[in-house]
Amino acid sequence: MSDRTTPAAPRPSAPGITLPLVLAIALLLPVAVLFTQVWRDVDGDRTTAARERDGVAYLQALWPLTSALADAQSAVVTGRQVARESLDRAVGQANSADDRWGEALRTRDRWATIRTKIDALPQRPGGSVPETVSAYQEVTDLLLALYGKVQDSSGMARDPEEDSAMLQDVSARDLPAALISAGRLADAVQLAAARPAAEQLSAVTELTAAGLATFQPANDAVTDLQAAIDSTENTNLGGNLLSRLDAYQRAMGGLAGATTLPGLPGAAATGQTRGARVALPDAAKVATARETAQRAAADLGTIVLAELDSLIRDRADHTGGRRWLALGAAALAVLLVAAVVTAAVLAARRRAARERIAAVAAAAGLVDPAPREEDRPVAGGPPTGLPGADQRRWEPLDWVEPVPVGPGSNAHPAPAAAVRDNQPARWGR
Q: In this model, does residue 405 exceed pLDDT 80?
């Protein structure tokens, strides 16, 4: 039985795998850094978009309350009953919005103050009209400040896109201010008609200031909406806004015409005639124009907020596409690195298999084994790796066994030269 054993398969050589691994790591590190940066930016954009949409939803809940407060103030000034059901319904919508998003938008304290003051508002005329008007104006001023707080806390005020930045400015600043101011202008006309003749001139000054406070934000809203329509890439934005924008402009034009002051008499204008009455706008026409303008403003504000939410949602969806693109690029890089490492490992294994086959063949005597390092012949010396007798044959000897020279002579060690000289005679050819 042969005592030969099959040699174990050699392991893949380290140098053949180390270099591909180093290259793979060198490729993956910058890819990982870029992927992390892109992923962080995408998450930030999605978080910003989600917070802005929360702000839009909060503003959508404030619009009915704004219209209800303007109507309630006008009802009290004109001596009518306040429609408490619509006001309570609007308060409930705003309260639900604050319960849901008030913590994130940091509006809890402001809304709690507004709701307390709304509950304390008079529901019917009876007390001092100036005090009643002052109470309503305080609440509406706080409401306009709440609009600004939502705009700032939700990040809408820092929107990078021009079209959405214009829309949020209109919905959170211009239109609410114009709607509230239109109600105050109509109330100022109603109150001026009831003043004594001696106070008519001061009433004219107040009406002029109220008109400026009404039409300035309205003009800003129209300008911003036109800029948003001109700058947007959304083809649906212009079509959805233009019709309501035209209706709002017509309504504000009607309000401006109804509140235009007639020419003042010369004596009244110079103050030379005390007690002369000043021609004031028709309060009934102003009230009708106010209702039309407020209704148009509410419709325009609703569609502006809806379009703003659509633009922000589309931007959030676009960030989702960037996320999938980053994932695809990272997966492709990993696949390429895996392919390089796999090719290197397979090449090393094929080389190890060839070495194993060669070792097995040499052990079976099918091929001459490669000489070991210690068996390689030294220049100028005898061959190595030979059997014992052959090895001793080629060993350099100074003296060998005694060789008899003649009869009865003593054996003396013969030098190596003598041995070499005797070899032919001793062994023959």
A: no
Look at residue 286 and tell me if it is in a domain.
Answer: yes
Structure tokens at 174: 């211009």
What is the per-residue pLDDT for 123? 67
Average pLDDT over residues 120-134: 75
* Token pair in block for residue 395: 């060993």
How far is 362 from 366, CA to CA, in rounded Å? 6
Task: Verify that 42 and 113 share a domain, yes or no.
Answer: yes
C-alpha 376/C-alpha 370 separation (Å) is 10
Number of domains the chain contains: 2
pLDDT at 269: 40
In this predicted structure, the answer to whether residue 96 has a pLDDT above a threshold of 90 is: yes
Does residue 21 belong to any structural domain of this protein?
A: yes
- Whole-structure pTM over 0.70, yes or no? no
Considering the domain architecture, whether residues 176 and 258 belong to the same structural domain is answered as yes
Range of the domain at 415: 387-427
Residue 426 has pLDDT above 70, yes or no: no
Q: Say yes or no: 320 and 401 in one domain.
A: no
Beta bridge partners of 415: 399
Whether 177 and 44 map to the same domain: the answer is yes
2: in domain: no
Q: What are 361's two structure tokens?
A: 């063949």
Residue 277 sits in the same domain as residue 399 = no
Lookup result for tokens 């106010």: 290
Kindly report which listed range (191-195, 270-274, 301-305, 423-427) carries the lowest average pLDDT score. Answer: 270-274
Q: Is residue 381 part of a domain?
A: no
Distance from C-alpha of 220 to C-alpha of 173, rounded to nearest angstrom: 10
Confidence of residue 389 (pLDDT cuts 50, 70, 90): very low
